[in-house]
Amino acid sequence: MKVDWLIVGAGFTGLVLAERIASQLDEKVLVVERRNHIGGNAYDHYDENGIMVHRYGPHLFHTNSDKVWRYLSQFTDWHPYYHRVLALVDGKKVPVPFNLNSLYAVFTPGYASKLEGLLLNHYGFGSKVPILKLRQEASGELHCLTEYIYEKVFYGYNLKQWGLTPEELGPSVTGRVPVHVSRDDRYFQDRYQAIPKHGYTEMLQRMANHSNIKILLNTDYQEIEGEIKFDGMVYTGLIDEFFNYMYGELPYRSLQFEFGYHSVDTYQEVAQVNYPNEQSYTRISEYKHITGQRAYGTTVSIEYPLAYRRGQNLPYYPVPREENRKRYNLYLSEAESLDNRVLFAGRLADYKYYNMDQAVARALGVFEKQIAGGKRS
Ligand SMILES: Cc1cc2nc3c(=O)[nH]c(=O)nc-3n(C[C@H](O)[C@H](O)[C@H](O)COP(=O)(O)OP(=O)(O)OC[C@H]3O[C@@H](n4cnc5c(N)ncnc54)[C@H](O)[C@@H]3O)c2cc1C
């Protein structure tokens, strides 16, 4: 069998590239996907109770990129959705990111008002102060507040999520989490925030619906290697697997999801409730809040982080530590030595956490610069 392009992986990255090559270059693309569905980790579907769920955990689309938004809008209408998150702290549900409303959820009105005044004086209304900066700078009562947020909202969640302390992870992860000196409870601040009206899977199906694109599900690249001839190849799977783990495995964090159906209209106040402290899970997500679906009953997922073990569970989050970056760079050198005969892109091939909009932007960039731009040798 001969195709113009072989693409490994039918997630966001693989399907954006397939769509671009098929529609803009009029070339034939074969996409191989080892799972039994397209969409990668963004896959959504109706469960046995008729509730739309996200198989691999809640996916909230948000972006500041006009380009990405315009591109995806060719394939879907949108359901506007602003994500809101509560965290269970000392028996109370507190808005996160921690903001001025959170103060009143945790402390007495008098003390909350005093802390609000201190935050406003020091940082000004509307500012977003990274937790690490606050810890370094704050003194007196603001210092106590900072330690409270760090210990009760942040530390335990991080420890469970990564299996590492914030110190072990380093500031690229830990420095990001801000305290909002405002009453803005939205989890994301991006200009565009919405969910594909009929789901991610349908949007991606539309993207792949082109006579130049064929998708083979349940097909592992490593099993068909050598059997398909192609002029160009894009690999969106694990880069260490591609090179047969010659420099050892790149570590990932994995997750286990426990889905449960409840015969109530809604299970919790918002789509996501975090459990930073006592429980072994990190969060409970309720999908109807996200999709806006009107139906009897509701489905939630409980999320347990755990280490990734090859063959036993799925690789979700690259672990952002310096030693892992160094190992990835060894694989990157191998990839570069292939002189663009194989292009690597996506969160597994780049060993980088991408939000969906970043995965789309990366795929569009690879298409423009390395494929349509004629830089391939
Ligand atoms: C729990 C969780 C929650 C998330 N929430 C959000 C969110 O709220 N908002 C957001 O913007 N982003 C979110 N993301 C990130 C989002 O999932 C990614 O941005 C997106 O999935 C990246 O797409 P991708 O195609 O690069 O990778 P993937 O989705 O992983 O797709 C890669 C595909 O390649 C296939 N594959 C790999 N190797 C092979 C092989 N050898 N042969 C055949 N097929 C192969 C895999 O099966 C997979 O389907 C979340 C991610 C996780 C894990």
Structural summary, described in words:
36% of the residues lie in helices and 23% in strands. The protein is built from 14 helices and 19 strands. The strands form 5 sheets. A 7-stranded mixed β-sheet has the order 8-7-15-16-17-14-18. α1 (12-25) packs parallel to α14 (356-372), α3 (100-106) packs antiparallel against α4 (109-123) and α5 (131-137) runs antiparallel to α6 (140-162). It is globular. The protein starts with a strand and ends in a 5-residue tail after the last helix. 36% of the residues are buried. The model has no long low-confidence stretch (mean pLDDT 94). Bound molecules: flavin-adenine dinucleotide (FAD). Flavin-adenine dinucleotide (FAD) binds next to α1, α10 and α14.
Task: Give the helix/strand layout.
Blueprint: E1 2-8, H1 12-25, E2 29-32, E3 44-46, E4 52-54, E5 61-63, H2 66-73, E6 78-80, E7 85-89, E8 92-96, H3 100-106, H4 109-123, E9 128-130, H5 131-137, H6 140-162, H7 166-169, H8 171-174, E10 178-180, E11 192-196, H9 200-208, E12 213-216, H10 221-224, E13 229-235, H11 239-242, E14 252-262, E15 272-274, E16 283-286, H12 287-291, E17 298-307, E18 317-318, H13 322-336, E19 342-344, H14 356-372
Parallel strand pairs: 1-2, 1-13, 2-12, 7-15, 13-19
Antiparallel strand pairs: 3-4, 5-11, 6-11, 7-8, 9-10, 14-17, 14-18, 15-16, 16-17
Flavin-adenine dinucleotide binds at residues 8-14, 32-35, 40-42, 56-61, 220-222, 236-238, 255, 316, 346-348, 354-357, 359.
